[in-house]
Amino acid sequence: MSYLVLARKYRPKNFAQLVGQEHVVQALANALKTGRLHHAYLFTGTRGVGKTTVSRILAKSLNCQGPDGTGGITDEPCGVCDACSAIDAGRFVDYTELDAASNRGVDEVQSLLEQAVYKPVQGRFKVFMIDEVHMLTGHAFNAMLKTLEEPPEYLKFVLATTDPQKVPVTVLSRCLQFNLRPMAPETVLSHLTGVLASESVDAETQALRLIARAARGSMRDALSLTDQAIAFGAGKLEEAAVRQMLGSVDRSHGARLIEALGQGDGKVVIEVAQALRLHGLSASATLEDMSEMLARMAVLQALPDAESQADAATDPDAAQIERLAALMPRDETQLLYSICLHGRAELGLAPDEYSGMTMVLLRLLAFKPPTAAAQQSTKAASAEKKTADDARAGAAKPLAAPRTTPQAPAALPGSDAVVRPDALDVLDAADGNAAPDSRAASGAAAPPVLPIAPEPPAQPAPAAGAAAEPDPPQPAPMVSPPFAANAGDGDFWHATVQRLIAADAVSALVRELALQSQLIGREGERWRLRVESQALSQPAVRERLTQALAAAGHGVSLEVEVGPVADSPARRNAQAAEQAQRDAEQVILADPFVQSMMRDFGAKIVPGSVKSVVKPVRDPNSRSGDARSVA
């Protein structure tokens, strides 16, 4: 007698033997008990979860005659009567299985439906089972719609598919749909244990765990892998042999990688990756095992009591998962899980899968926050670098000659600004010039002496025994070169900018510099502007504005500083636009027709519907414009 593979030998014969699909069994059993039988059933699910098996059990339940030949419709087929035996053997006349993958045309479906007009020969019901029904053509689906909707009372349809999205909704609406779920690894492990006990095959529990995980929820795949493992291990299932057969990675590698990543040890990560390469172990399987371990770690971190003591006693990885969960923070666990999950899809894009896996693992180290020791080391290195830079700068920069006599703060002519002597020293040093004493010694022309502001009156000395009040903090004076302030500079600068914009001489950042700046002062060919944005004070932008002014007849040298701006062309334009808007609204409200409409009919002016249109200013010295209102 030829050998019968485990997947066929241990195919369930009744609902009691069907594992992992309790929700389907309960619904069908109750329907059979109460006689509420639908005429069409659709079973969906991945490969090897029991779609064809459920169809055959349902056919036996509908046609079972009982051991004595007097049975009826039941949810517990006997398995010994002629109908049950014939269905198990595949020779029952009233049970027809059609493989839609190879019989997908309208002719094959029409040939099947022609049998529907004949009553059952041996059983109570005819059962048409169409496997992989989504492979049928559109014309084949259309040919069976009418019969599927109103079949004879003795005809039952059972459809099975792994891709229900490809089944037309017109077919789905005519069927009761049952989704058969993938098997959990624990369910597969339990079933394999019982099967191997019946076969008297010695098997290690960890070897069966590997097979259960490799089956991916398919019981048929699990039984097929078990057959292969028995042959590979010469009648025994040992963990090492099964791992070698499957090409799976030892879980210790994944645990070691997670531990190294949790500790930020990139050297160990590279060493483990090289070891996987040398042993030819799968990089994708490594990332998959890490993802599974990280998922369990995340559950333990969120719910420490999630895993029962029974699971911890039977699962050898439970203690290791608990240790790793305590080693890594929650956010890093989530990040590493996401990186491993998405990294598996990137392995095919890498030059080879091992380099791809190495980059995936190092990605966490790139985003991992540095430890306290690393942060302290970085701070120390930065401090040492700063000290060295300061020392080099102090050695290279010449010191300005000290002033021999203190001087009072100098006042700018025509301005309330005060320039302190030490500030002048700073400016001298910044410009690379020598101090006044050194200039006098060298015979250079001395700069014009600014008037000295009178010293403030001396404060009376505090009485004896009275506590001396501390001097209030003085604000730091603003340092500016000696520019004469002019009240008409704002009007002049606004008119100049308006002419530049009207002539399209400035654009982009240069236009914004002109609009957002304030002319602080003019002294011959030197103009100083002030802006609030550091980005507008760039030398390139200042140079382009200087060129635009030169083209307009102002051959000047611009100096731009950053500071508060009180008056600028942009602010004047905004104020003019606001005033024009208010004037336009007043014009509309004062119109006699508008007033009569509001008075007689309760009309209202929609807010924002009044717009002011200002004509371009032709006179550069005038800021007024001809405004008219539109509604």
Set out the fold topology.
Elements: H1 6-9, H2 22-34, E1 40-44, H3 51-63, H4 82-89, E2 95-99, H5 106-113, E3 126-131, H6 138-149, E4 155-161, H7 169-172, E5 176-179, H8 185-199, E6 202-203, H9 205-214, H10 219-232, E7 236-237, H11 239-246, H12 251-262, H13 266-279, H14 283-302, H15 309-314, H16 318-327, H17 330-346, H18 353-367, H19 372-396, E8 410-411, E9 418-419, H20 421-431, H21 436-442, H22 489-502, H23 508-516, E10 518-523, E11 526-531, H24 539-551, E12 557-562, H25 569-590, H26 592-601, E13 611-614, E14 627-630
Parallel strand pairs: 1-4, 1-5, 2-3, 3-4, 6-7, 11-12
Antiparallel strand pairs: 8-9, 10-11, 13-14
Helix pairs in contact: 3-4, 5-6, 8-9, 9-10, 9-11, 12-13, 12-14, 12-16, 13-18, 14-16, 14-17, 17-18, 23-24
Low-confidence stretches: 396-470, 472-482, 616-631
Strand count: 14
Mean pLDDT: 79
Helix/strand/pairing class, anyone?
Answer: alpha/beta
The largest pleated sheet is described as: 5 strands, parallel
| Distance between the first and last residues' Cα | 99 Å
Number of H- or I-type helical stretches: 26
- Order of strands across the widest beta sheet? 2-3-4-1-5
What would the principal axes of the Cα set say about the shape? Answer: elongated
Could you explain how this protein is built, in words?
With 631 residues, this protein is an alpha/beta fold. Helices cover 50% and strands 10% of the residues. A five-stranded parallel beta sheet has the order 2-3-4-1-5, covered by helices on one side. It is elongated and about 120 Å long.
Task: Note the main attributes of this structure.
five-stranded parallel sheet, 631 residues, three-stranded mixed sheet, alpha/beta, 26 helices
